[in-house]
# Entry
Amino acid sequence: MIGAFINLFRGVRVGFVLAREGALAFADPSELPPHLKLALRLGRSIERPGLKDGAARLSAAMTRLGPSYVKFGQFLATRPDIVGMAAAVDLEQLQDRVPPFPQATAVRVVEAAFGRPIGRIFVSFSEPIAAASIAQVHKAEVEDADGTRRTLAVKVMRPGVREGFKRDLEVMRFVARVVHALSPEAERLRPREVVEILARSVMMEMDFRLEAAAASELAENTKHDEDFRVPRPEWELTARDVLSSEWIDGTKLHGPAAIVAAGHDPRSVGRTVIQSFLRQAIRDGFFHADMHQGNLFVDAQGRLVAVDFGIMGRLGPNERRFLAEILLGFITRDYRRVAKVHFEAGYVPPHHSVDDFAQAIRAIGEPIHQRSADEISMAKVLTLLFDITALFDMSTRTELVMLQKTMVVVEGVARSLDPKLDMWTSAEPVVRTWITHNLGPVGRLQSGAEALRVVSNVVGDIPDLAVRLKRVLIRVDEAGTGDAKRLERFARNERIRAVWSTLALWGIAIGALTIAFRGL
# Structure
């Protein structure tokens, strides 16, 4: 009970700051029930005079609330379905910068993580060169056994940050429950789920071993990509509170002038940004979800290099197929196929009409083909698509919304380097390659082989099941002969049913392989 009152008090403070900084201006009163309209009017009445216009108000409120809410604001930048696209774009620029903590404190954190003095870990360890709410970065040198010196980026956790985030997350959970209670219609946006996703995301960000693992997985997925690479983590110098990785000397993607000065082609780099992101999302199902200019470099060889792997996105096979097919459907103007993909994935309830949904999608797609390539925004198309799906009772898919927001950022980065970039021409090779490989003859063979593997696993489990049944029979026999006989009959019937089920599964597998070979 006391905890609830504390969270209520803290929640009221959050609401007061949001109202005072004018962040409530984003709420659309026409979509609110009467009691929330009244609350909104009261909140707007205490706005500070002289506030900036637009989305900057939300950034100001998050900054005033503190580091946890700055992180929350950055997370909301991936959820334009909640805060709107204008606010999401502004929150993407939210500066997660706070004063650095003392060098001596950072040294203590590093020494505690590795259990030895800093001088025995690094040859040199600089003052902080960048600081954020969770950690700060230092430049360090190590010396290998052969005497070679290498430069590393060392990320050090801010002391006490876990406790602060844990406290603020409890307030966010409380506020999400209140929002749900006051406006059940908001459940479509899943506010409670959003907070839990944020909680998992932040907790993962606060274990640098997991961030190193994300970098390692992305590096493994992209090791054959000649135009993209990931800094190598130093596992021996990485712990929960310290992350060491290869130092990147490169040019940030802050504009074409810097890229040209470094001897690279901005148009080529812009195309690489788009294609690298789509390969990660569609081909691998694991993508960097924070690909803004500050996290992207071009190295001396002209390769795109990404850093900071605290925010990553995952897509399952169904979501990857969904993304690939809707992009290709818009490229080829096959709107019915785009509609069917939504229904096949289960995103749109079956009581709706595929033809009606295809008609709505056509209203998005046809205007595209009336414009020149450089006027077409892939991210805007996906935004409009998700807006239309709301009319057809499509529940919010958090992983797809994060994908959409990342695409907005990626497209902005690419267009900043080449304003005339043809997004669709850049995307088509990646999309077609994935569809050809996964939905063509090769994909059918792989699906057939997977079905065969599942059947084989079932068959392999039958002897183990028989042994388990025998053990049960022995135990029951000790308890009573009559019960044992009944159970023995039951076990015999189950074995017969298992045999017939296995034969049926083999028949299904053979049929799947036959269909696959016919498609060749």
Observations:
- Confidence is low (pLDDT under 50) at residues 515-520.
